[in-house]
Amino acid sequence: MTHKFELLIAFVRRDFQVRYSQSIVGLGWAIAQPLCLMFVFSLVFGKFVKVDTEGIPYPIFVYSCLVPWSFFGSALGRGTASIVVESNIIKKVAVSRILFPVAAVLASFVDFLIAGLIMVVMMIYYHVTWSPWVLMVFPLTTLLMLLTIGLSLFLCSINAYFRDIHFGLPLATQILFYASPIVYAVNVVPDNLRWAYDLNPMAGMMVGFRNVLVKGMAPDWELLGIATVVTLVVCFIGYGVFRRLEGNFADII
Q1: Separation between Cα atoms, residue 12 and residue 243, nearest integer Å
Q2: Which of 1, 121, 131, 252 is the residue whose CA sits 20 to 30 A from 32?
Q3: pLDDT in tens, 106-115
């Protein structure tokens, strides 16, 4: 177990260093994506197309969800590609394959922490009142990481056999982005569609992050409960599929 943990840390460190090697901006890229998206969405949905933000300034309204979403999107992409990317190691070295997608997700978590610092600055700038509910960020982040790892395990396993997953993932994540309450509030979703909408685990998490960070209130427990159940199911399926298929990775990638 100790050996696997040391390998995991080594893979996380390597992935992080390789990502920003020979980069002039370096860690600045960790905040560039959510910040740029915040400016664009603030212009479109805050100025031209008025969105009900429940009295919250639109920049911090959208940024509170863009930070966890950016982590989810980037980590899922890297996790899905991890087995194919690490094909040389997998073919030559006997190492636990599960370390690669998990390391890819954890390496992206550093970006999440850096972008989160900007969130703190924005909360101070907009005079957001801090409440004890802000501590819910930790279980929400844990849940988000579990969902990302579970999906990564499932998708990287299938991607090893069918590379269509690699090409279809950006489209799928873009659709999921607009199917989650990031640029708009969840109360705009029609009541007759809520039952299907609520099954999206990202809906409960995004509402949770916005509530505890910006509104100073509890998450929507019903939405969060659904997100938790779906996440556990995804982790169970993802782990099962990965374990079932990993024995053939070296032969097909």
Answers
A1: 21
A2: 131
A3: 988 888 988 8
